Amino acid sequence: MQTEKFVFVGVSTGESSMMKIFPEWAKILGLKAKLVGCDISLRAPAVKYRHIVREMRSDPSVRGALVTAHKIDLLHACRDMFDFLDPHARICDEVSCIAKIGGLLKGFAKDTISSGMALDHFVPADHWEGGRSDVLCLGAGGAATAISVCIAERSRIAAHPRRFLLVDILPERLDAIRRIHDKLDTAIQFVYYLQSDAVENDALMNRLPEGSLVINATGMGKDRSGSPITDAAHFPQDGLVWELNYRGERRFLRQAEARAEERNLTIEDGWNYFLHGWTQVIAEVFQIELSDEVFEQLGTAAATHRPAQQGREKI
What we know:
alpha/beta; Rossmann fold; 2 domains; six-stranded mixed sheet; six-stranded parallel sheet; 11 helices; 12 strands; globular; disordered C terminus
């Protein structure tokens, strides 16, 4: 049997821990496949994205791809090259997964599903009962989009937060996520803040009701140092804290840990989100079912390659 290719479209894929993790996962899953990195600079010309997709489509050994930092730009450049886009790809206007299935090239936005699985790992099933608490998401990029769409979709059938507050330093990101939210059928109130001052972020967080969820989706503490809040910020009593970074200095995480006992905080980092993000794409590309037991096996194998807490790794 010929070794199949699973393409990893990123920026500096050779530095990713997945290059070490995937061979072990392939053994566990019984796949005869290798992970092939495809590096492309951010905001590349459309012609480069089209070349990548054309090569994937024409190479019979390629089963599909996982896309990281180029999810939006790749779809914008190559929308006409896909035979199918799943509902989340159309809503979020991005693709994180490309799969060749039944002779068709299909695009999926898996982060909405992955974020839901990660939320279920640390948010109690009855946490939103009563609808009196909020979500404050610091950062309004791709991760914030996936999480907000996930929670909004769930709000149609289950208890949900009262408000979802989003903060970003770029007006175009807030405009983009607002357009996505306008497509959703939800009772959640979305509120948008254009600000870059950590003290202003503190003020927003200080006003949150008990039990609210605070998310660091800025990338600060991973690719660049610092935190979107100051050490003087007050985390919500009985609150949930989600640091989406799973590597790097993660100052936001340390700030939460310092107040965890005093405020009775439940704290989660981005490791499970990272694992679900990859495994959901692999399951789609290779058309396999992943049980909870198999996911645990994959997580255990990956943990041995988890970057050191102060390490820095490129996507």
